[in-house]
Amino acid sequence: MDTLEHQAQSLPAPTADRPLLGLTVLVIEDSRFACEAMRLLCLRSGARIRRAGSLRAARRHLQVYRPSIVIADLGLPDGNGIDLIAELARAQPRVDALLAISGDTHLAADALAAGADRFMSKPLQSLSQFQQVVLAALPPHHRPPGLSALSDDTVRPDDIALQDDMAHMDDVLTGPCTPETLDYVAQFLAGVARSAQDAALEQAATALAARRAMGLPTNEEKRVIRSVLRQRLTRQIAI
After folding, report:
1. Which example biological process does GO assign this protein (predicted)?
2. Domain range spanning residue 205?
């Protein structure tokens, strides 16, 4: 019996209400707010979770550990998550389930073409939706026998994680910003805003992305975003 077979036999068996029991999920996600939601979903499903906030951190992690499931965000600070998905899809042995996640649904086809088993759209806060997508990507021997007990529960990440994301983006905008940095800020904040249901922040991020796409100056859009961020951060401090 090889090591992987022994490890598989020693894992606790999944159950209907904890269908990912015994599995380890590597979440590659730069947003603390989105990662906190994923952490809650994994824990409620019985899975252990590890986090990497960049492609570099993910590759370093994968040199040491072999997770059962990888969930990779497609917009990361040091590159495109699709590149990592393509690498992991070709790797031997392959992880049991390889999933892409993004707030940009138009990237789904590219992620699946690169080798992702499934695509998940942000914001993802439904426990049953999360479990259904992950279980569909797993091989049969990792699924609980019979029907899973689907839950209508949703998760709500801690507001401290949201504040961390906003403070980080405020710091990024304080320094010199390359065009690539502005593109990253726009997509990051748009995703966070959708998850937090913050219409004003999403509008500001979308406006920045539109100006960047047209190759136009973005000084006013940066000013508006920083103003919105400062309002949110000041509100949190006051609370």
Report:
1. phosphorelay signal transduction system
2. 159-238
